[in-house]
């Protein structure tokens, strides 16, 4: 009887361990000091060196954008994964990237793919085939990343002419290939709370979340009436939507009356930090922040630099 009971206990323990191995990834949330700033989309001459960099944070510049579209046609047309530069590369040049990283050891520089528009026309994720898009994207992005000495990529497609599974396979294979070859060290995605956008990015997360380092969720896309408590609730929703992900809070410094106010966002960040959930903050965008003397960039970085351990 004792041996039989022991055998049953062992069997139960073994079964429990198997179930634990195949259980969904547990939600993780922890304070960290990652600050990210998009830059270069507005073509107003903003430089890396204009932006204050707190040595107490991990700081990522994200160049906006590279797009697999050409403006040789009117309207611009997709190029099936062959990316062209659409950030202000005459100012944010390869030597400028090298210089800002050399003078600030805590700085990395990534580039964002896609965006909402090109020449005021919508950018769609559009492919000829999965294989052709991935092959072209790997080749063209490898060239751009190596030419400019970049560290990673950010995925910011916001409109789609493919289904979520196709988007997930294309982007997932791209990130996997670039990481496997050592071309990039980090990758992020930049969804927002739109049903179609969420379907595409959650499909990508479900299949390839293990190669995605950060979720740059566009919380500022919620309405201007959003309260601090609602912001925190939205943040918790995204923790559930991207389980195990490093979710970043965010705000925009663009002149707007339709987005979540900056002070509401910063107060929500303080609440999230007090709850041990504030992994980081990103801002759209340094181009806009310059006219405000970068005071909100400075405040956000100070908050992260003084983060209590969670």
Structural notes for this entry:
By secondary structure, this protein is α/β, with parallel strands linked by helices. It has 9 helices and 13 strands. It has helices at residues 2-21, 94-103, 130-148, 164-180, 195-208, 228-241, 262-274, 286-289, 295-305, and strands at 34-39, 58-67, 69-70, 77-78, 84-85, 107-115, 117-118, 121-122, 152-157, 186-189, 214-216, 247-252, 280-284. An 8-stranded parallel beta barrel has the order 1-2-6-9-10-11-12-13, surrounded by 5 helices. A two-stranded antiparallel sheet has the order 3-4. Strands 7-8 form a two-stranded antiparallel ribbon. Helix 3 packs across helix 4 (164-180). The longest helix is centred in the first third of the chain and has 20 residues, at 2-21. It is globular, with a radius of gyration of 21 Å.
Can you summarize this structure?
This protein is α/β, with parallel strands linked by helices and 310 residues long. It contains nine helices and 13 strands. The longest helix has 20 residues, at 2-21.
Strand content: 15-25%
- How would you classify the helix and strand content by structural class? alpha/beta
- Report the mean per-residue pLDDT as an integer: 92
Which value, in Å, is the CA radius of gyration? 21 Å
So what's the overall shape? globular
How many runs of DSSP E, i.e. beta strands?
Answer: 13
Numbering strands along the chain, what is their spatial order in the largest sheet?
1-2-6-9-10-11-12-13
Question: How much helical structure, as a percent, in the residues?
Answer: 25-40%
The N- and C-terminal alpha carbons lie at a distance of 48 Å
Number of helices: 9
Would you identify the regions where 5 or more consecutive residues have pLDDT less than 50?
A: 1-27
Largest sheet: 8 strands, parallel, barrel
In sequence order, what are the helices and strands, one letter per element? HEEEEEHEEEHEHEHEHEHEHH
